[in-house]
Structure formats: C-alpha cells, structure tokens
Amino acid sequence: MINKIFVTILLSVLLVSCKAKQKMIAPAEVATAAVNETAKNIIVNHNAVNRDFKTAYIKSNVDYHDAKQSLSVSADIRIKKDEIILVTVKMFGFTGAKALITPTEVKYYEKVGGKYFEGDYKMLSDWLGTDLDFQKVQNLLLGKAMDDLTLGKYNVAIEENNPKLEEITDGNFAKSYIFDPKDFWLNRQEIKQLEPERRMIANYSRYKSYQECVFPMELAIFAVQGDKITTIAIENKNVSFNEELTFPYSVPSGYEQIKINK
Questions:
Q1: Is 257:118 a contact under the CB 8 Å cutoff?
Q2: Strand partners, 101
Q3: Judging by beta carbons within 10 Å of its beta carbon (0-12, 13-18, 19+), is residue 232 exposed, middle or buried?
Q4: Per-residue model confidence (pLDDT) at position 15
Q5: What distance separates the 2 farthest-apart alpha carbons in the chain?
Q6: What DSSP string describes the chain?
Q7: Spatial separation of the C-alpha atoms in residues 65 and 69, rounded to whole Å
Q8: Residue 203 CA to its chain's centroid (Å)
C-alpha cells in the first residue's frame, strides 16, 4: 500500500480546504491595533522567506506509520515551481509508485495491486466535499503556510517563545501557525476540524539556507481522526535547485483505473 503515503498527504491537505463558510468575527479585546500590526509583520516576514527558485530536486527518506503498518521508503520529489510536482516512491531502489500533481489534475499509480487514478480537482472536491488546491500541496512541501495568510484575521500569541497566529473564526475549523521568532520560517501549522473531529499537524525542523531557497530538511505530518493517528516523517537528504528537470510519467499497461463514486 505504498500509495497510502501520497494519499495521506493529499487528504491532509484536503482537510484545510473545506468549502464550509466561516463567518469572520471581530477580534477579541486583546487584539489591539498594535497586536494586529504584529500579525501583519509576521505575515510579511514569513512571505519574504527566500523561495526564489524555478525547479527543485529533492531526495528523501520517508517513514509511514499507522495502526496497521509501518513502512520505510525513499522518494524523489521534483518540483517546477507553481507548475508541476512529481513524486516517485521507491523500495529497494525500484519504483513502487508515482504521483503527478499539476494545478489542473492529480494522477498516481502503484505497482502493488496494479492500480492508477486520474482526475481533476473538481472530481476530488466533489467526492470529498472540499476544495483541493495545488498551491497548498506545494506550500506544505516548501515549509510555507498552506493558506494565503493575507486573507485572514488573526490573534497573536506566544508559544515557547515563538510567535503564533491563530485564525479568528466562528466556523468549523481552527487554524494556527507557529513561526521561528528570528527568521519567520514555519515551525508548525495545525488545522482542526471540529465536526467531524479531525486534525492535521505539520512540524518542520532543521531548515537549510540555500542561495535559491530556505528549505525544511525535516517534515513530520500527523493526520488524526478520532483515536486513529497516521504519521509521515520526511527527511530530505539532498536538495538541488534550478536544474533542467524532466517529469516522466506513464501508467504501465494493464493497470486498473480507480473510479471515484460521488
């Protein structure tokens, strides 16, 4: 079930993209003009973190764990910024699964079981009742807040000496973002869905500063639903930028297409 790694990441991102309307409420009394200005400064500084690259090629080790199984694989991740992401999952040096993500479609196949999926975001969104966004997937991998923070309203808090933004809504979701106090890269982002109860946490650590990008070398994703916890730990072993990359993807013959019923 190698594709579980990709699917869990995808569904974790879907969790933060719900169509449910969230009425914005007035900030609490503690959210003075000065505090609001602090929130603005945090957002400006976080968005200013260097991500000035055209392509990225990432070699990673991935550990997957849920209640039924644990799996360790390697992954090659190729990104053409804002255009395409190709994830190749390998076991013992051989390709076990591939996922191709663009702003208009999602594809993947797995050799174990011989199945593949092809669909646009509308298909996935209709099926799950949520909006899926290419930008959110890319941001998750790059250590950037998945939401456009300039569109929200936030209270500012301090957690273990780190600035924290908590989105102000009275809706079904609670979102928070914790930043490094000096460099404003992302340490943690958490999205809670209250009903049904679900939660996604992404922890980032060991950033490395390249000329083209400040990049998180370790990422841990926790998808929690009730008492079920799925964990994906990604260790980026090597990252290179602005190489001429190809994005080869073709489903082997004889594979069975996965059909989604709304």
A1: yes
A2: 85, 106
A3: buried
A4: 45
A5: 62
A6: -THHHHHHHHHHHHHTTB-S-----PPPTT--HHHHHHHHHHHHHHHTS-B--SEEEEEEEEEEE-SS-EEEEEEEEEEETTTEEEEEEEETTEEEEEEEE-SSEEEEEETTTTEEEEEEHHHHHHHHTB---HHHHHHHHHT--SS-GGGS-EEEEEETTEEEEEE--SSSEEEEEEE-TTT--EEEEEEEETTTTEEEEEEEEEEEE-SSBEEEEEEEEEEEETTEEEEEEEEEEEEEES--------PPTTPEEPPPP-
A7: 6
A8: 11
Quote the pTM value: 0.83
> Which residue type is seen at 108?
Y
| Cα Rg, the chain, nearest whole Å | 19
Average pLDDT for 208-214: 96
Round the average pLDDT of the chain to a whole number and report it: 82
Alpha carbons 188 and 168: distance in angstroms, whole number = 18
To the nearest 10 degrees (0 to 180), the angle between helices 121-128 and 3-15 is 70
- How many whole angstroms from its chain centre is CA 174? 17
Residue 98 tokens read as: 């591939």
Reference 128, options 10, 229, 224; nearest CA is 10
In sequence order, what are the beta bridge partners of 23?
A: none
Q: Give the residue carrying structure tokens 């841990």.
A: 220
